[in-house]
Amino acid sequence: MENQLTAEEITKREMEFDAKIAKGIVVEPKDWMPDRYRKQLLRMMSQHAHSEVVGMLPEGNWLTRAPSLMRKAVLLAKIQDEAGHGLYIYSAAETLGTDRAEMIDQLLSGHAKYSSIFNYPTLNWADMGAIGWLVDGAAIVNQTVLAKCSYGPYSRAMVRICKEENFHNKQGYQIMAYLMKGTKEQQEMAQDAMNRFWWPSLMMFGPHDTNSPNSGDLMKWKVKLQTNDDLRQRFIDRTVPQAEAIGLKIPDPDLKWNPQTRHYDFGEINWEEFNNVIKGNGPCNRLRMKQRRDAHENGAWVRSAALAYAEKHGK
Amino acid sequence: MSKSQEWPSWEVFTQNKNGEAHEHAGNVHAPDAEIALMNARDVYGRRQEAVNIWVVPSTAITASTPEDVGSFFDPANDKMYRWPNYFKTPDGIKQI
Ligand SMILES: [Fe+2]
Ligand SMILES: [Fe+2]
């Protein structure tokens, strides 16, 4: 559509678009939107959808070894929700004109990113607690804000997802709380999971605002409503008391309540590690991609058989 | 998998409770209506959000376009008398 418009017309429409956003009007799929808005949204939404899907793998690792049938049923339901989240967001992203198959291709060919947190291994059962509590907790902070973003389909998907995330968060915290009431070994297991997942959870909010090149436009267009650093701070402020309540230590010697700012001060994140994981050199990047590709390829015959059946029976 | 082999998209409408209207929930990909219904149940009804589901091929939906928003819906604008509060009633009159 944009090709048929003159540069002048585009500028005019962009100004109208910006004014509309400033007024808080929600953008719907068929509305005119600047090319960069569409591209940025598509990048963000597909990354988000990929994260939900790849995020099933670290937890899937513990399904067969959950300590009880109840824990197994809960974990299974939680993972199934994540598959659903992936679908909601892919479906919202498709409204921007790229179909799901193309997005999945980009993931499987290694061209698309997903959240770096899922490239860390899950070494013990307490990791299921740490993930639900910390990783889903961080996701909630992020997604609650995204639920108010300017793109209708994305915002509606987030509203739906947020309702389900609280279950994820609580079941994780309950695993941790339960272990902290257990034997010394169980307490150590919980603390060990905490030590490994705390910093990567903080990294989930992305680089410092000063290092976040896309933030300006995204904020102007209300795709992002709060900066990475603000969201990270909010997560820390709400999580530290939860850790203290069950006797878990935050693995950060610089963490301290600041009565002036009424926030927790905290130590510097290891950005070198963050960049390394993003570049593909985290502990599990290759494994995760291999698992995704295998799952996709091994399911191919089911997809074609179902389609062949539908065609044959004229459905 | 080539493009032509992709499962088509279906729009999903869910009825939350008996007696309520169906509402658009989102979409699913499925090879046929039967599997579309099952996928819709798994994706949009895991927590009793639906007592009934409709699936419709996405291509079967015709929508009004945002560009027409003015002219298409305009006739309603200057007919404020369609709303009851357009009419003033004498003081003291109740139940109307
Ligand atoms: Fe999720
Ligand atoms: Fe979750």
Characterization of this structure:
The complex is a heterodimer of chains A (315) and B (96). By secondary structure, chain A is mainly alpha-helical. In chain A, 66% of the residues lie in helices and 2% in strands. The longest helix of chain A is centred in the middle third of the chain and has 29 residues, at 152-180. Chain A contains 13 helices and two strands; from the N terminus they run ααααααααααββααα. Chain A has helices at 7-22, 35-54, 56-60, 69-94, 100-108, 126-146, 152-180, 184-203, 215-220, 228-245, 271-281, 285-298, 300-312, and strands at residues 256-258, 263-265. Chain B is α+β, with helices and mostly antiparallel strands and 96 residues long. Chain B is 18% helix and 22% strand. Chain B has two helices and three strands, in the order ββαβα. Chain B has a three-stranded antiparallel sheet with strand order 2-1-3. In chain B, a hairpin with a 6-residue loop joins β1 and β2 (22-29). Chain A binds chain B through residues 28, 30-32, 77, 80-81, 84, 87-88, 91-92, 94, 99-101, 157, 164, 300, 303-304, 306-307, 309-310, 313, 315, and chain B through 1, 3, 5-7, 9, 26-29, 31-35, 42-43, 46-47, 63, 65-66. One fe (ii) ion binds at residues 52, 82, 85, 139, 161 of chain A.
